[in-house]
Every structure is written in C-alpha cells, then in structure tokens.
Amino acid sequence: MKTVLTTLCILAVATMALAEKPVIPSGDWTPARIACPFEVVTYDWDFAQGDQGFTTSVCDDTGGAPVWAHGTDANFPATVWGTVLNGDYISDAGEALVSPEFMVDTSTNLVQVTHFFEFENSYDGGNLMVNGTVVAPMDGYNDDELSDSVNYYAFCVDGQPGLTDDPLVPYEMITSCFDLSAFEGETVSLEFQFGSDSSVTYLGWYLGGVKVGGTEPVGTTDASWDAMKALYR
Ramachandran region of residue 177, left (φ > 0), alpha (ψ -120 to 50) or beta? Predict the structure, then answer.
C-alpha cells in the first residue's frame, strides 16, 4: 500500500510540474517584411482564387494532428490557407502544407510568401522545408531550435529553426522572401511545416498567397524565320 501511495504522489507532483509550464517572454524581434527582388514571376498562387493545387501532408512519423484548411476566416478579407480557420490551432498538431512541384532555375529561385502568424513563443511554430532542408527567410527565423524543452514536443518542427511568437500587428499580413538558389536544377515542393506541443495555443499561421519567380527569365531560343531557315542550310 505504501508503495502505491508513493507512486501516486510522484505522479501527482509530475503532473503539477508539467501543468506549471514556464512562460517564455516575447522578444523584440520584428520581421523585416522583405519583398522578393523579382525580375520575373513564374507562378502566382493567390489563395483568394482557390487552393491553387496545394495539398496537406504528414511531416512527422510519430504523430501530429492535421490542421491546414483552405477557406474563409473572419479575420481576413479573402480566403486563405490556415491552421484551423476561425479559431486557435489545437494542441499536439503537426502537418505540412505542400505546393505543386516545380524546377528551380533563375526564373524560379525566389519565393515570396504573404502570411500572418501567431504562435506560443518558442514551444510552437512553423518553417519552410524544401527537399528535406529547412530554408530561412532572408531576414532569418527568430528561433534556432523550436520547442527545445525535454517536457514538450512540437510535432514536425521540434528542434528545428522556425517562426514563433506573436510579433505582428493583429491580422495584418506581411511578405517574406526565401532564396532557393541552393536548389538550382532540382525539382522541389514547398512544405510549410507547422507544429504545436501538448498545451497552450494561439491563432496560428495563415497564408494569403505564394509567388515563385526569379532574378532573371530563362533564355529562350530565337525562333525568328531567319533562324529557322538556318537550321536547313
């Protein structure tokens, strides 16, 4: 009996310890709202016009509840992709929003995302994964290791760099630019990974649109009549 009581006391103390989750204060980081220096825009995925062929995907083999949905949210004037529409995201969530595939060259080496985010600071967050590599926006992520606590695990993004906290004006979308030059010659998809731990939730991540373009158009073959005749000389 004594052993049982001791075990119950230990479990009660552990439960109390987990219930008293430390609050990590917000920092003074503010996104730089960087627009991509496009010379050409190759894909313009405007979510006000539809889901644009984006799909959802499992991004953590250990679990994570699905959250991404396309539709109307009362906080935004047009349809969006969001982590739970018209409400906070849920605990223990983990899912990726995935773009159509495209080849990276000089006309597709920049990605501009129009988005809004609000996460539990340092415990929950999101990032962009491309072909197994986390890609940072030009102004960087504001956390080098999301959810690094041994007691709390954020599906999909745990231990990864990413966006977190609530540094934005409420419901005001900003633009962030990502450089994909390192993937030139590869076929890629953009995976917007989101994850949360077992407690405390916020509004989440909302995407209004994604543009893919580049620093210069891909060269085209001269198809003039003189050039065509030259092929048969």
Answer: beta
Which architecture does CATH list for 33-218? Sandwich (2.60)
With beta carbons less than 8 A apart as the criterion, state whether 192 and 97 touch.
yes
Of all residues in the chain, the percent with pLDDT exceeding 70 is 85
What are the start-end ranges of the H helices in the chain?
Answer: 2-19, 225-230
Place of tokens 């982590």: 83
- Categorise residue 33: left if φ over 0, alpha if ψ from -120 to 50, beta otherwise: left
C-alpha pair distances (Å), 110 with each of 142, 183, 190? 20, 11, 12
Nearest to 143 by CA among 125, 156, 131: 125
Band (218; pLDDT cuts 50, 70, 90)? confident
